[in-house]
Amino acid sequence: MAKASGVSRATVSFVLNDDPRQTISAATRERVMEAAQDLGYVPHGIARALREGSSRIVVLNVDWGMEGNFSRSYVRGLDEELAEHDHILLVRHGHSIPEATQKVLDTIVPRAVLRLGEVYMQGRAPSEEDWESGFAANAALQIAYLADRGHTRIALAMPDHDFPLTDARLGFAQEAARRRGLPPLERFVVPRPREAGAAAIQMFLSAHADVTALAAFDDDIALRSLTALRDLGVRVPEKVAVIGFDETEHGSLTTPALTTVHIDAEVLGRIAARNVLGIDTGGLAPVPGWIVARGSV
What we know:
- The chain has helices spanning 2-5, 9-16, 26-39, 45-52, 69-84, 98-108, 118-121, 128-133, 135-148, 166-179, 194-207, 219-232, 266-277; strands at residues 57-62, 88-93, 112-115, 154-158, 186-189, 213-216, 241-243, 260-262, 290-292.
- By secondary structure, it is of the alpha/beta class.
- β4 (154-158), α10 and β5 (186-189) form a beta-alpha-beta unit.
């Protein structure tokens, strides 16, 4: 390829490896890529891994219960950014025993292993930056939207089993309420199946008649709540308002349609990819979440 494109072997290597430390002109890069295509060049993954000490695969572990627009957009950004730098993303969903995980890692020798949301699972207190555009800010957005519409007694509608980010979400929501001068948020579980969810909400509202709004853990719990309230004959939003979190497509199909928080994490995925590859993240900044205003609030 060096002979065909009229450049040095080192330049060919820099172009094919997309080395961020080297400045290669667009014309030279194009000549090398044309030569690679003409000659049918295909990188040898095993040989490259032996030379570099790792493969060009990045592993992302996504725990159960973290599927949603946030995770999908994060994966999209991470995958696209890695692909632009000749790396491959492998996403592993759900819990797995350490032995099985280690077999995967030993087999592919990944460049890096990430876990979605890990920084918040470690109990780290959020910084002010987190409250401006991070996970804490998105949790606060949900509470603030209700508070701005006069709701002072708000309850958190929770799933019937804990997820990795449950404690973080609860902490952020309670702190958001405190910052707004609201009393501590009530908390209750909306279980499956449908009848159990209705019974749980009926029992909760009977014991907390002053609660006027439900802030759901995610859109799934919000939709369970809307269904239960409809079954109980409780008018939404006149009697009780409901707001979801991490928008799914199903919220727009309910009656009333679900108000929720939309989170776009594509930029976060791109930032993570660049951090893994040691590339400058300048010019990339998290996108704040926003309210999708519909009929349930």
